[in-house]
Design goal:
heterodimer; A: mainly alpha; two-stranded antiparallel sheet; 12 helices; about 70% helix; B: mainly alpha; binds fe (ii) ion
């Protein structure tokens, strides 16, 4: 088949909502876009473990400790499925991880903010996992089969995380003055970075249009951001917390909230590596990788010895 | 939490189980997000979760025995170091992955044979907790044994690191298997485990794993002790400073 007829076939599948599967022909740019997006998503899960793991040893109760540990473990699992999904496109996990460690690959900027108090664990679950769900539910219908299937599994867990985070915030908001202040402070710090999670505004988003056409992306950044604001504002009100945006108001006509301008300078600064924790996060990943090198080498050497022993045994038998 | 200077023997005994699993679970949870391989990060976190889950059952039982409205959280978060009853082994730092694996290998070998016996305890609650935990403990022992063999028989470097870890941590094995008055009293009552009975099984198991891993049993037989009587190393204070920070900084709140 000629390239143009393969392209035709591919585009027809996209049109008919038939999933693209690993061994099928696809345009190089489609493959590249997917590898970039899926690996970024995987890296985000892995780097995202760090700010939350920061509170595992200090969680305020046994119940919260176990729940947090299980949550961070889920994120590791998400990273694992996503690396596997990306590997079906012909890029190895090692290559992807090397790009993360060298700073070449990106991950979600939200994880470059610090977790300073316990309330940050509530805020992350509620807002960051909440924003992730907004982003990811449409991805359950993304055109690439393995990615879509990974997302279905991940979204179930993310919505559990979101409820758990909200419940932490609710408990704080109903608690002592100190606890309420802690919850409000966390919301104040995490609100705007959470809105930034949806990426640049549609007019400035360089990859969006093609991704929408290929049905990799199913909703635009601004659309998703609006959905998030509309879903989250009532949740904040319900527990007596104030969204830190003086311009926030209900727009009767649109049936949506109007909200203030995002500080895009801050956004690009964090993307470029100047967030409060960019260096710390990357250093932590590199340290784990370096310190784990001898373990990985040993595991490999042992596996090789085992295989050799096995084949020697078979030869004798 | 009241200022206890001593506990009833059964409470002592339950606290030893609660604190061994709590402190080891805490230590292993420090790996979360920093493991040498993603799959192993997940496996370590699993073990931390299992241990903390087991600890919660023991902590709740200890709280019940203490009365006075104690809870799993007051028992975990409001005792100071001298009131902790974990063995010295479990409070040792994670070190490199070899130290973590060897610490678990020694503890899991003990914990397996201990819990297998504890299932027969005349104390129904202890027997139930042991029965519920045994499957997890069996898996932990398998994990730490397999990794000991893999690393011991891996590269020259991994063998050297494992041998160092064994030499460093072996001195904490004795306390787990040497009965004191509390152990004896609990054994007499049919509640506790006969440590003299399980010691040969534990030693035998460990020497089998070490020999398959090309690792040497340390020659120096001197054993440190004191943890289970409340005499700890300097490490425990720092563990508690993290573990208890929130409950100490904000007393009496709901989280
Ligand atoms: Fe996730
Ligand atoms: Fe995610
Ligand atoms: Fe999540």
């Amino acid at each position: 088949m000629s390239e143009s007829s393969m392209l035709e076939k591919f585009e027809d599948k996209i049109k008919r909502e038939v999933k693209i599967e690993p061994r099928e022909w696809m345009p190089d740019a489609y493959r590249k876009t997917l590898v970039r997006q899926i690996s970024q998503h995987a890296h985000s899960e892995i780097v995202g473990m760090l700010p939350e793991a920061n509170w595992i040893t200090r969680a305020p109760s046994m119940r919260r400790k176990v729940a947090l540990l299980a949550k961070v473990q889920d994120e590791a699992g998400h990273g694992l499925y996503l690396y596997s999904a990306a590997e079906t496109l012909g890029t190895s996990r090692k290559e992807m991880v090397d790009d993360l460690l060298s700073g070449k690959a990106k991950y979600s900027s939200i994880f470059n903010y610090p977790t300073i108090t316990w309330a940050d664990i509530g805020a992350i679950g509620w807002l960051v996992d909440g924003a992730a769900i907004m982003n990811q539910v449409p991805l359950c219908r993304t055109s690439y089969g393995p990615y879509a299937r990974a997302m279905v599994r991940i979204c179930k867990e993310e919505s559990f995380h979101q409820r758990q985070g909200y419940e932490i915030m609710l408990t704080l908001a109903q608690g002592s003055e100190e606890q309420k202040a802690m919850a409000q402070d966390a919301l104040d710090r995490w609100w705007w970075p959470s809105l930034m999670m949806f990426g640049p505004s549609d007019k400035d988003s360089k990859h969006s249009a093609q991704s929408m056409a290929w049905k990799i992306k199913r909703k635009s950044n601004d659309e998703l951001r609006q959905n998030f604001v509309d879903a989250t504002v009532p949740q904040a009100r319900l527990i007596g917390l104030t969204i830190p945006d003086p311009d926030l108001k209900w727009n009767e006509e649109r049936g949506s909230y109007d909200f203030g301008e995002i500080d895009w300078e801050e956004f690009w600064n964090v993307v470029k590596g100047n967030g409060p924790c960019n260096k710390q996060r990357l250093d932590a990943r590199n340290k784990a990788h370096e310190e784990g090198r001898w373990v990985r080498e040993a595991a490999l050497a042992f596996a090789e010895k085992q295989a050799k022993r096995k084949s020697e045994k078979e030869q004798v038998a | 939490m009241r200022a206890y200077t001593s506990y009833e023997p059964l409470t002592e005994y339950v606290l030893r189980c609660a604190d061994n699993t709590l402190v080891l679970g805490h230590r292993i949870s420090e790996w979360c997000g920093h493991g040498p391989i993603l799959e192993q990060d997940i496996a370590l976190t699993n073990m931390a979760l299992d241990l903390l889950g087991q600890s919660r059952m023991y902590l709740k039982y200890a709280a019940e025995l203490l009365g006075h409205e104690e809870t799993e959280d007051s028992v975990a978060f409001l005792r100071d170091a001298m009131q902790f009853r974990n063995s010295l082994l479990v409070e040792q730092p994670n070190g490199d992955f070899a130290h973590t694996i060897v610490r678990s290998l020694i503890f899991d070998s003990f914990h397996y044979f201990f819990s297998e016996q504890l299932i027969r305890s005349k104390d129904q609650q202890l027997a139930d907790i042991a029965a519920k935990s045994l499957k997890e403990i069996t898996y932990h022992r398998k994990f730490s044994s397999e990794w000991s063999i893999r690393l011991g028989d891996g590269t020259e470097e991994s063998n050297r690191r494992m041998q160092t870890a064994i030499d460093d941590l072996w001195r904490y094995k004795g306390e787990l298997l040497t009965p004191d008055e509390i152990d004896n009293e609990m054994k007499e009552k049919g509640i506790g485990v006969d440590l003299n009975l399980i010691a040969p099984s534990v030693d035998n198991y460990l020497s089998q794993v070490l020999s398959r891993a090309n690792l040497q049993l340390p020659q120096d037989e001197f054993m440190q002790k004191g943890g289970k009587q409340g005499l700890h190393s300097e490490h425990l204070g720092y563990i508690l400073a993290e573990l208890q920070f929130m409950q100490r900084a904000y007393p009496g709140l709901n989280w």
